[in-house]
Design a protein that fits this description.
Blueprint: E1 2-9, H1 17-32, E2 38-40, H2 55-58, E3 60-61, H3 64-77, E4 80-82, E5 86-90, E6 93-101, E7 107-112, H4 122-125, E8 134-137, E9 140-144, H5 153-160, E10 166-171, H6 178-192, E11 195-200, E12 202-205, E13 208-211, E14 215-217, E15 223-226, E16 232-239, H7 241-249, H8 252-255
Parallel strand pairs: 1-2, 2-4, 3-5, 9-10, 10-11
Antiparallel strand pairs: 1-16, 4-6, 5-6, 6-7, 8-9, 11-14, 12-13, 14-15
The protein binds the ligand NC(=O)CCC(=O)C(=O)O.
The ligand NC(=O)CCC(=O)C(=O)O binds at residues 43, 49, 117, 147-148, 151, 171-174, 177, 180.
GO molecular function: hydrolase activity
Protein name: Carbon-nitrogen family hydrolase
InterPro entries: C-N_Hydrolase (IPR003010), C-N_Hydrolase_sf (IPR036526)
Length: 263
Amino acid sequence: MKKTLALIQMNVVAGDVEHNYKHVVELLDEAMQSNPDIIVLPETWNTGFHPSEDLPNLADPDGERTKALFSTYAKDHNVNIVAGSVSVLKHDQVFNTSYAFNREGRVVGEYSKMHGFTPAKEDKYFAGGTHVGHFELDGIPCSTVICYDIRFPEVVRMAALPGTELLFVPAQWPTMRLRHWQVLNEVRAIENQLFLCAVNGCGAVGRVQSTGHSALFDPWGTNLLEMDTTEGVGIVEIDLSTVEDIRNKINIFRDRKPELYTL
Ligand SMILES: NC(=O)CCC(=O)C(=O)O
């Protein structure tokens, strides 16, 4: 099964929610010109990542605005959308939440980032999610982790375990750790034998620059797409039969010994 993915590397304007909701539709329209099967967005594209005291006022209450926008867009355009992540206000707490929409416009996936990036005080401003989620898009088993989560092999393995073939990693990853971004994404694809679609933001927030370099790795670790540092839409085709191919040749999911992995 072959699928075309559109990676939207968006320049998010921190704190300008109205601009970001308007601009995201322009980028969706640009992505649709390539007739993709799945569109993917970066992390916290509604508010920007760098947290401030204003975050609860900027966050989307219960994700309603985001869900309404993407449900309608996905259904009207017959496309699956992994809507990156957005800042969502739930019961007086803000979560960094990713929603996935199928072609019918149904919310099929919801995941809130588990690991707040403590160097940026994300854990102070955002509440953490407690479990990974799994969903299907066009019959493909999928899962999502968000940015800093990729540093935690345990959570990515949990995301991979139920047969996940396509993992999404929306992010706002800075230039100063570009090499970590590239290596971690490649390694997580190899060690979990899945396609990994990593979509970063771009542009500056204060002194911190999101580095772009959105990328697609296949289960062998082959880099099928790497974008530059500027805003745009990256298009890539994946062949899902590669997952079965590698798992037949080197079956790590059969060979692993979780009963021995205790201290
Ligand atoms: N948005 C983030 O989670 C940033 C993570 C990061 O910069 C890092 O892990 O390094």
